[in-house]
Design brief:
Helix content is about 30%, strand content about 20%. The chain has helices spanning about 40-50, 70-75, 90-100, 135-140, 160-175, and strands spanning about 30-35, 55-60, 85, 100-110, 125-130, 145. Helix 2 (about 70-75) links the parallel strand 2 and strand 3.
Length: about 180
């Protein structure tokens, strides 16, 4: 049954339920994955979202199945403890606009993360595809964009590493009093 050479020895059998779209609380932080294709990255991002207290993860079009065995293994079970909603970018942008969720994009040309002073909340961190970054529609929908400064001559990080750094920073700066 296991897909790994050295399985954990745990078997889960569950019915997959469609998650309802959340009603944001005043300090909620969400994660939207825009075409993140590698199941390892998706699993690590879901695990990080759970670790840093995010309210839900949205798996956008083109994103690896959040319940793929590799994603579940890399999420260390976090995928079973956090709402995960599959949606298109258009549906997500509409939900955010209707619910007052501020969209924050990530890209190499954004404001350096150390200059971030806190987010208008509730907010959603939008991470793009490993190769192309954010889609044009989501880039346009994110009035705020941040980057992670790196050593001269280097311009990218793995999306899971970058996402974890952003989530950690935002979770620290935006804690409820």
């Amino acid at each position: 049954v296991a897909t790994a050479a050295s399985p954990e020895g745990v078997l889960v059998l569950a019915r997959r339920r469609r998650q309802p779209w959340p009603t944001p609380g005043p300090n909620d932080l969400y994660l939207y994955l825009d075409g993140v294709q590698d199941p390892v990255n998706v699993g690590i991002l879901i695990r990080s979202a759970r670790a840093f207290g995010l309210a839900a993860v949205f798996a956008g079009s083109g994103t690896a199945d959040p319940f793929h065995p590799t994603v579940l293994a890399r999420s260390a079970g976090a995928a079973l403890h956090l709402p995960i909603i599959s949606s298109s970018g258009e549906e997500f942008i509409g939900w955010a606009a209707t619910k007052g969720v501020h969209l924050v994009g990530t890209n190499a040309r954004g404001t350096p993360l150390p200059q971030q002073q806190g987010l208008l909340m509730p907010a959603a961190l939008v991470l793009g595809n490993e190769g192309r970054g954010l889609s044009p529609d989501l880039t346009a929908a994110c009035p705020v964009r941040y980057s992670i400064p790196m050593a001269s001559g280097w311009d990218s990080l793995n999306v899971a590493v970058a996402g974890a750094l952003f989530m950690y920073t935002y979770s620290l700066l935006n804690k409820a009093p």
